[in-house]
Protein: 5-deoxy-glucuronate isomerase
Amino acid sequence: MSKLLRKPKAVEISPGVTLIHDVMTDSSLLEFVGMKVIDLNPGATYTEDLDKVECCIVALTGKITVSDQQVTFENIGTRECVFEKKPTDSVYVSNNQQFQIEANSQARVVLCYSPSQQQLPTKLIKAEDNQIEYRGKYSNKRLVHNILPDSNPAANSLLVVEVFTDSGNWSSYPPHKHDQNNLPYESFLEETYYHEMNPKQGFVFQRVYTDDRTLDETMAVENGDVVIVPKGYHPVAVPDGYDSYYLNIMAGPKRIWKFHNERAHEWILERK
Ligand SMILES: O=C(O)C[C@@H](O)[C@H](O)C(=O)CO
Structure:
């Protein structure tokens, strides 16, 4: 199996808390992006001390209460399934803080991490604060919820976005990359993709490749998988009959999303 593809696991780490993914920088190819996916049974709690990392807690599905010892956000989260396609609530917690999540219902939470030194205030990112974008045309249409875009100064490094791609469409397409620290033309951002499909037995294809093809991997991605994008272009193709959801976490030395389209395919954008 590709080094870039992670399958979900189910390890009970405390009563009622199951670790589904654990893609931290000490166990992946990444330096700037970490992520965990956890499931919580109703009433279960998960506590974490953030050392030198900041964290965006995304209430992917279900209802949770999040506190950082000073402030508490009760009963946040808006959906039972990501394919309801409504934005959800998230909480930003800075480095060197402790947070606790308590599940008010069965919940799946994505924890997005990046190394961070400068403390920032804990912040609730409400569902209604997500910037919603409809991108693309023909078979390149997708719906984007910007949870933590570079226009929101709440974080030091983290960028978080979720993308819905309907059956038969392509997204993160035409292929683009952000792996050069060459602003204002391109920024260096690592990225992870947490994928779901509807219906669940579906799969999508994701290719991760560089100009010189020293990295060129095409993966069949199933429900709950994570794809790691250390560099390169990273388009996603969704087969007929299945809808795709993914949550992206990006981070790098500068908190700017400036991507470079692969020139050979840029004409896709220019179609009338
Ligand atoms: O517009 C899309 O299809 C989503 C992508 O931009 C995705 O969020 C990504 O690749 C970010 O670099």
